[in-house]
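Q: Start with the shorter request: fold the first protein.
A: Done. Sequence, then structure:
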Amino acid sequence: MKRLVGKVSMITGAGAGSGRSFAWRFAEEGSDVILGDVDDAGLSETAAGVRERGRRAFAARCDVTDPASIESLIASGADAIGPIDVAVTSAGTSERNSGCLEMTPLEWNHTIGVNLTGTFFTFQCAARSMIDSGREGRLIAMSSIMSHWGSPETPAYCASKGGIKQLVRSFALAVGRHGITCNAIAPGFIETGMSDMLHDDFLLREYMVDRTPAGRVGQPQDVAALGAFLASDEAGFVNGTVLLADGGITSSGFYSTSIALQREAGGPVVVDTHPALRGRRQRVR
């Protein structure tokens, strides 16, 4: 049974990756979709996929760091296919900038601006629209497992995704009385354009797969499936929380499948640690 029949969903960052997967999955669940991104070509392709799935699509350029751009997307989309019931903030950046001691104000502000400030203004504009139209709704943000971990190489990214955890809690309190829920998804390592390192660095990919109990990296469809649940009426009592879609990697700590197998075989255990983690060769008892 389709879960989003009669709904209109707005998705930012819809030109590729998880944003595109949200759009296509939501269309398969019966939702019409308003699409926003700064990638015009990507938007066109996503919109075509929505229509191929039998739903209406409205696509327009949207810069999430500019509230006026978000308001325009919502208003124009409402004129075209109707007021929104669901808003997904999939726009984001994972640029590998300078580390903690080298990062410039420009680098910091760009990452925080897109990932955190962009999510705030998208939520604000979407919630106002839902309240004004008298519609109960769903706000869904994209956090990350990096909201649970630290990284000296990507402090702005980690901070932005950690901030989203607090943002969804705050919005849940602000809009809950209007029948609007607010939650976030924290993906693990997902194969999208934002994770080119998983394609380019075989050792890193192997390292992450080894530490993921599911035994693989994630696909955008894994994240979209969780998003479809959060957007549905079934998730009406899920509010103010962050749900992991990480294959279990945040539960693994230092555990790895290869270590477990070597222990079972007996003898010393040798771990070839990825160069990104300083290239140390460690001996584990």
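Q: Next, the second protein, separately.
A: Sequence, then structure:
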Amino acid sequence: MVYNWQRLGGRGQTRQRSGVRQEQLTATISNMKLRKIGFSRIERLANLFGLYDAYHAFVEKGMLRKKMTSDLYRFGNTSYLIKYFNGSMGHGAITKTGNLGFGFLHAGFINTLNPERVLCIGSRQGFIPAVCALACKYNRHGHVDFVDAGYDAGEPGNWGGTGFWKKNNPQEHFSVLGIGDHLTTYVMTSVDYARKYPNRKYTYIYVDGDHSYAGVKKDFNLFWPRLTDGGMMALHDINTKGAYNDSEFGVWKFWKELKGHHMLEFIDGVNALGVLQK
């Protein structure tokens, strides 16, 4: 993974201000470890022979007693987390190894900032919102507002969505992690959400909704003023170019226009994440 740390000030001057520094972030990510409560014996055997998913299905269908599972069954199996929330698409996460990819970065930022409120705009099946909510739960503080229009394939404004949030119950979907106290889902456009909750402020914002130039610029203009001083905004797919349906990817173009911010880039092959600090 390649990353870039830029401090861009007016007229070429480097701006010094307090906040998350590269070395602080690196230390935070390195020190963050899942609490290894440990597999039960049957969990270890199932995992050893590649049957953990089958074991999980038996438990969910009531064919095995849930008390036979450890807390790791619900919270610590990162491979299951990636698979269940479709984290392998665009985030550098690897199901086989349980590597959360960019998920570790979001968790590290939230762990460091300890925000009162987090905003996530867009997610196919909730991977980043789930990671952010878990980070808030780890902090014992904070709440994630997750906003997605729920567009299905072929609908205008769809950017990889499958209509998941209109076809499924979001509360039930996220309940496997026990993060109900730290996450609320709003199935609506970001514009409607901004209009409905005009006074909410955020310390961390993740933008992964409309990937057109006009769309990402709209979300930036809507929510950057609502970001607290020292807060951070992450933009997904800052290096993706080309056509998508009847639109063009434009996050890369908007990202290049941004100046006067602390800017952090993470590039992992075709996956890329850009982060700004206010």
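Q: Describe the second briefly.
A: Residues 1-22, 25-39, 68-76 have pLDDT under 50 and may be disordered. The beta strands are 2-7, 117-121, 143-148, 183-187, 202-207, 227-236, 243-244, 247-248, 262-268, 271-277.
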